[in-house]
């Protein structure tokens, strides 16, 4: 089974924000959790040591986030948002009618938008993202939701993302 990695578009600000997060986690974050694990280990019996298990779980989460960020940054295309040509592509804001309701969302990585943004984000690999990628304004397409229902999507507008 081939594992295809897609290029992810990021603004310079998003790239810098995630680079700083990775640097912090890989440096101080790892050092701090190692100290917590060592301190908890010194408390004795590891089987019943809640602090040790919590620290090991936190370490697992840190390492998983480091892997996600490393992969994201390795395949990031940094720069201005792709200019909308009316065709759905990564980094564009899409207005679509889904099950009769109009939705506005960014197609791309959640890492693009800041924590304070209320813009919904769908990845290109999601069922919705896969269904609409490459379609143009006026197109109607559909995808099968995880619950097995077929969902119709009508592309109303495709705009350039402005952070």
Note down, in words, how this protein is organized.
By secondary structure, this protein is an alpha/beta fold. It is built from three helices and seven strands. Strand 3 and strand 4 (101-107) form a beta hairpin. Helix 1 packs antiparallel against helix 2. The longest helix has 30 residues, at 12-41. The radius of gyration is 20 Å and the shape is elongated. The two termini are 37 Å apart. The model has no long low-confidence stretch (mean pLDDT 86).
The overall strand count is 7
Task: Please trace the helix and strand order, writing H or E for each element.
Answer: EHHEEEEHEE
Average pLDDT confidence is 86
How many helix segments? 3
Major β-sheet annotation: 5 strands, mixed
Note the beta-strand portion: 15-25%
Q: Can you list the strand order of the major beta sheet? A: 5-4-3-7-6
- Regions with pLDDT < 50 over 5+ consecutive residues? none
Oligomer: single chain
Q: In angstroms, what is the radius of gyration?
A: 20 Å
Question: Which shape, going by the Cα principal axes?
Answer: elongated
| Percentage of residues in helical conformation | 25-40%
**Span of the ends, CA to CA:** 37 Å
């Amino acid at each position: 089974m081939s594992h295809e990695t897609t290029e992810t578009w990021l603004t310079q600000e998003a790239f810098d924000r995630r680079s700083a997060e990775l640097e912090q986690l890989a440096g101080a974050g790892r050092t701090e959790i190692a100290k917590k694990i060592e301190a908890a280990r010194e408390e004795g019996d590891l089987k019943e040591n809640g602090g040790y298990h919590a620290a090991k779980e936190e370490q697992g989460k840190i390492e998983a986030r480091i892997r996600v960020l490393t992969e994201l940054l390795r395949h990031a295309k940094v720069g201005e948002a792709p200019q909308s040509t009316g065709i759905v592509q990564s980094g564009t804001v899409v207005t679509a009618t889904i099950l009769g309701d109009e939705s506005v969302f960014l197609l791309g990585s959640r890492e693009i938008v800041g924590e304070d943004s209320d813009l919904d984000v769908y990845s290109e690999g999601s069922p919705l993202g896969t269904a609409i990628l490459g379609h143009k304004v006026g197109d109607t397409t559909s995808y099968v939701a995880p619950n097995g229902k077929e969902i119709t999507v009508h592309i109303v507008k495709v705009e350039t993302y402005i952070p």
